[in-house]
Amino acid sequence: MISKVEIIGRLLLSAIVGGLIGVEREANNRPAGLRTHILVTLGSTLIMLISIDGFLKLNDSVPRGDPARLAAQVVSGIGFLGAGTIMRTGNNISGLTTAASLWVCAGIGLAIGSGYYLGAVVTTVIVLTTLTSVGIFENRILVKKYKTIEVIATNRPGIIGQIGVLFGKYYLSIKDIIILNNSGYDEESGIMEIRFIVKTPNNFNISNLYKEIYQIHGVISANFEGNIVSDNN
């Protein structure tokens, strides 16, 4: 039998470690934040405690069944909650990291519930390090091979194709095209923001590109990696 103090301690610890991960997700404005991560970790711990301590015979404390069966359902069941955080817009998929963090929180909760404190604490530290430091590394090192060019233009037929042809002239490889702020406007006079994710060659000259992109009828403004370039440059 697990003592009452031990039960309370495990539940409190799970709420703390789940909250630490949830704070990071909340700070980054993710679909599942502080409360969700606390509840997932706490619930997993409770289920693990029930699996271990909730099916004992009152007389001789002999388990009636396999404690792992109830806990195993958490691993598969958390997938439904994680799926709710995943959103797809065109070719872009977001929320996978949050779904993974929920899944890991469930595992941490099971570990705490079973008394595997070392594994739970070390996993929490690794998760927090991954969500904070590794994200910075990705932004600085890995994502740099792709650049973002944002173009504000009138919504007219063929304008995206003309911009794409111009990019081809400067040997820019287009990885993705995202169209934003297009709802609520008619096709004749609407304004849209077009975001191009491109890979640039080593000898890429941005100033020459912008001189020509403003010659395309309908282009209002453009910026490269957040730096606005006017047609006077």
From TrEMBL:
Compartments, record wording: Cell membrane
TM region(s), chain numbering: 36-56, 68-86, 93-112, 118-137
InterPro entries in the record: ACT-like_dom_sf, ACT_dom, MgtC/SapB/SrpB/YhiD_fam, MgtC_SapB_SrpB_YhiD_N
Chief location category: membrane
Coiled coil regions, renumbered to chain: none
UniProt keyword annotation of Transmembrane helix present: yes
Domain (ACT) ranges: 148-227
Cellular component terms per the entry's GO annotation: plasma membrane
Record key words, sorted: Cell membrane, Membrane, Transmembrane, Transmembrane helix
Signal peptide location: none
Membrane topology: Multi-pass membrane protein
Family affiliation: Belongs to the MgtC/SapB family.
Protein name per Swiss-Prot or TrEMBL: MgtC/SapB family protein
Species per Swiss-Prot/TrEMBL record: Tissierella pigra
